[in-house]
Every structure is written in structure tokens, then in C-alpha cells.
Amino acid sequence: MKKAATIRDVAAQAGVSVSVVSRVLNDTGPVAPAKRAQVLEAIEALNYRPRRAAQQLSHGQSDTIGLLLADLTNPFFARLADRVVAEARSRELQILLMTTQEDPHLEAQALETLLDRSVGGMIGTPTGHNIERWEKLASLDIPVVFVDRSISQFQHMDVVSIENIESAATATRHLLARGHRRIGIISGPLDTTTGLDRVRGYEQALQEYGLARDDRLVCPAPFRGDRGATAMAQMLSLADPPTGVIVANTAQVRVTLRMLSQARVSIPDDLSVVVFDDNPWTELIQPPLTAVRQPIDMLALHSVELIHARMRQKLPPTPRHVRVAAEFEERASTSRVDPDDG
Amino acid sequence: MKKAATIRDVAAQAGVSVSVVSRVLNDTGPVAPAKRAQVLEAIEALNYRPRRAAQQLSHGQSDTIGLLLADLTNPFFARLADRVVAEARSRELQILLMTTQEDPHLEAQALETLLDRSVGGMIGTPTGHNIERWEKLASLDIPVVFVDRSISQFQHMDVVSIENIESAATATRHLLARGHRRIGIISGPLDTTTGLDRVRGYEQALQEYGLARDDRLVCPAPFRGDRGATAMAQMLSLADPPTGVIVANTAQVRVTLRMLSQARVSIPDDLSVVVFDDNPWTELIQPPLTAVRQPIDMLALHSVELIHARMRQKLPPTPRHVRVAAEFEERASTSRVDPDDG
DNA sequence: TTGTATGCGTTATCAT
DNA sequence: ATGATAACGCATACAA
Description:
The structure is a homodimer of 342-residue chains. Chain A is an alpha/beta fold.
């Protein structure tokens, strides 16, 4: 096994100079048809492929985008990754995958790694704990796009998310319209937009019905662990438990449902449930769950498109916030209730 | 925004030569304590990080491993990716993610991309249709490890998989022991090891009971689409339908279950079901499914370990086949049946 | 239209 | 212990 061919080998084989080879390769500049043929032939014969590392070093740009997600165990992020990979491919971009497991320490480590400029841009879901490192990345001219969630401190950065406030309000109104007056919500951490905005939308809908928020029914849970399940249990043990609940923390949906199942809470008879999720497996669950479906392909599309544009500096430096609408899908986990019972 | 610091800038700032900086960076060769301090200080001050591309070009090796999976929509692959990323991180390896969507064309495209030596090794699930390209990769001295599945043509390459034959035999014996005599199996394509070996294990168990294989009960389905569902429907419409079925194609589990649900086939009363899967969502399904649980963390661990060793040429060139045991988990989707009914 | 020469940032060799 | 300097493979400005 002899060592791989370089551009010089090709040039020699074709009897031309390296510039000519480079030109036919990148279609940059003129080249005589005859020579072009020779070059192509040589490339084929030598099985030549330009080395990414060399190209990158030469013109100082990386066509790799770092994708820093929370955790691929969550089908939401897994599907997001799937679509991001697809969108990236159609633009000839590579995806360097990393996960934080919602652990700030791992996130820090990942960001630290990327400081070597191995990526030309970043798409990520921040844990909320490494503000300065994200900033440092950006200050190194590595564009960053947050997807799904953001952090209040990052107002000046690009974000692609669903319409969280509106989606939560819709879910809440759905229950309100069916007579529910005591509605619980299990949200994400309030320092993330997915946590805060969904609670906001929830409160907004309550206000429309002249209802005040009951703090015992608003339970922010971390994205990690099964705090959502214990929060659910606590709500159910109240003297006046909720008749409906919105699980607005995608990462807590599964554990919450498992807890309800184990506690033999009947859905929707004992409790109406709306979830933020669009896991294809939910359709196999009994009863099928009423859900806010996140348009994952749109999130992926816009994230990649945005980061791609930034990488090519095709955009004015003003921060963008792309919000895509989510669909509300009524299924069988929510039922009507007598408002006076609440 | 001034341009990022290079090793030369650091050297200048510290009043030393680049060699000294390189030595403190890589701990290769001696350096006076005093100068070392200056260098460290300069690095800190200039916020310097060595560029990956330059390092890579210099010593011609990539610490990135390509991960080519079928599809992250399948929780099995998603979890596998999650664990591979984790294992890679602990070894300071990066993961370049690509998907085939089980499409040979996309697989070809992905492999073609990797010919640029941007990765130092590959972990993947082959579709079965790009033999020569996989070979070419390997001939370029880019080590390849197949995970989960392999192809019969690839006997000479590294593989990490579960004990497919044994696992399928166990599943089959489980049903046989409960009186089932007509047992169907929905497998993967027979040109993949996951397809062929599982059918082999199934047949082996049947033979132990003196049973002959009925071709109508053996249904290989592609990993893509919902052929598993139609195969299931066909089996059920036989004059003598199976009383038990093994869904040995992970990618077909969901669609098959959906079909059964829609057809109002009661599990396990009308049909006993064993699935190859270890999706955490299955526990929410009624009834909980008897399953062959694949030890995903072990698959990831061995894959990364193996490719890492290959990348460092720490291994004799003989191909390795790491097989890890799968657990059989009996739950509620299989029941006893009177053998005479079959 | 083609070729030469230089730079990209790092590592490694080899004098000093 | 330290510092020039030559690779590494490619792109490109500039000369021919």
C-alpha cells in the first residue's frame, strides 16, 4: 500500500502544474480542454481526493458545523439531529456531533474543544451555564445558532424555536374550554426560553379566563432526571388537585406518564393530559396523547440555513429569531369536565 | 475583531521561538521552567488554541471518527449514537455524524465524502450496497468497524454486534416452551447479519422441537418502509395463522405494532409478540412487551474502543468480531397456548 | 492559458 | 535547552 496521491502527483501524472489541477478541481479559472481531460484522467488513475485538512488550512474555513445537543435519548433531539444531518448534507456541510447530557461541565468541555476552529459554525441547545464560553466562541468569529431553546442572557444571538408562548396558550385554552379550571403545568427550567415562555403562555390563557395562577400547579423541572414525575405526584396529592395537566417539558413526558401509569391514574378520566412532544411512539400509547407537535423539520431547516448563511457572512449582523408555529393535535387524553367540580 | 492568534504570536509574546511553544503544548522535549511560565502566560493572554486543521495536516492523522448510521429516527440508533458520542469524548475523539436513511445512494455519497481523509476511522451500519466503496475506504488506511449489523461480503472486516443467533433462538424457545407451534418471524434483509443470523437462530430453535420451517411464516422486511406491517397482515390472513410472532427487525417494530393495534388484534390473547428492541417507550405500551434488550452501551463501548485501537494501529490486522450477549426480558406480551390449537 | 512561488499553522528534525 | 527551518497538501496571487 503506497501512500495516497497528492495534488502534485496528479500534476506530474498529467504533465501539468498544480495550479491547473487546482483549477479543474475547483473550477476557478480557465483551463484548456485537452489538459482538463488529462487531469481528470490522472485524478481517476491515482484515485485522488483533495485533503480536507489542507484545504481548510489553506483558505481558513471549515465546512463542518458543530451540533451540540442535550441528549439523543430524547426522541425529540434524536429526530432533530436526523433532520439537521439531512439539511447539512444537501448543503455539503458536515456535522460534528456532541452532547451535553444537560451537564454544564460536559457542555464546557465540548465548547472548549471547539475553540480549535475545527468547526465553522455551531448549532446547539445551551444548558444555561456557560455564558462566557459561548460568547468566546462567537468572539472567535464562529457563528452560533441556538435551536429549540435559548437563554435569557443570549438575547443578542440567533435562535430558531417554536412559538412557545402561543403553543402553551393554545394547550391551556384547550383545557379551559373543556371546563378545566385547575390546570397544572410541568415546564422546563425558567431560565430557558422553553421553560419561561411556555409558563407565560399558560398564564396568559388563564388570565383570559379570569383565573389566577396557583403556584402549586406550576412546576419547573430540570431537563434531566425524573423531577417531572415527582412534581406530578405532588400536584395529585394536593387537597384540590388539578383536573388537567400540561407536560411542557419534552424531557419529562416519558417519566411523567410512567408515574401516572404506575399510580393507576386513569387518563383522561382521572386526569386530562396534554404533552409537548411528537414522538411517533406516543401513538401506540393508550390513550393516544393530545399533543403539541413540534415541526422538527422546520427547526432543522432554519437552523442549518441560518448557520450556513452566517458562515458565508451573507447576513447582516443583527440577531435573528426564527419562530415556527407548532401544531396542536387533539387526541384522546383530554376530556371535558364540569367546571364546578374544579 | 483582530484575527486569531497563532503559535507564532504566542512565541513572539513570550519572547521565545515557536519550537518552545510547541514543546510546552505537546510536552515533547525539554523546556526551562521560567520560559514555560512565560509561554503559558502568553497563551492565556492571547487566548490561543492550536488549530486542528494545521495539526492534522502536519502529522497526517485525524482524531475524528465518522459515524454512519441508518437513521436517528429509530430510537435504537439514536441511543447508539448517544453512547458512541460519550465513549468518543472520553477518548478525546470527535464524531462526524452521517446517516444513510437505508438508502444506498446516500450511503455512497457519505462514503465518497470521507475519502478526503477527514476522518481517521469509521463506525457504521452498512446498507449492503456499496461494497467497493467500503473497501476503498479501508484501502486508504481508514479503519472501519461495523456495528450492529454486517454484510456477508465483509467477513474480513471488524464487527461489533449482539449474539444474534442465540438471541433469536432464545426468543423462539420462549414461545415454543409456552406451547406455540406456529411462530412467525419478521426479520431484516437476509443479506445482513441481523437478518440472516436471527432467522438462523429461529430455525435452530424450531429444529430442537422437531419443527420444520414454514416459509410463509418467515418474512424478511427491509429496514425502511412499513413492509413489516404488511407481512404481519399477510401472516394473520393465512388459513393457519401463527399464534406467536417475533419482530426481529428493530426498524419494523413500531409499524408492526401499529398495524396490530389498528386491526384490533389483542396482545397476547390473539397473538403473542416478542420484539427486538429496548426502547424506553415500550414500557408505556399496553401490554408491556416481551423483548430482546440490546446492550447498546456495550455496542458503543466496543465499537469506539476497537476503532480507536485500529486508528493507533495497536492491533494485529486480523479481523475482530466482538459479540455481546443480549438480555431476554419477559413481560406481558407473550402468553401460554395449547399446542394442539396450533 | 499556464507555471512558480508563497502562505496557511503546526510538528519535527537538527544544528547550536 | 533553544531556535531555525523544512515538511504537510492545497489554494492563489502573480509572473510568464
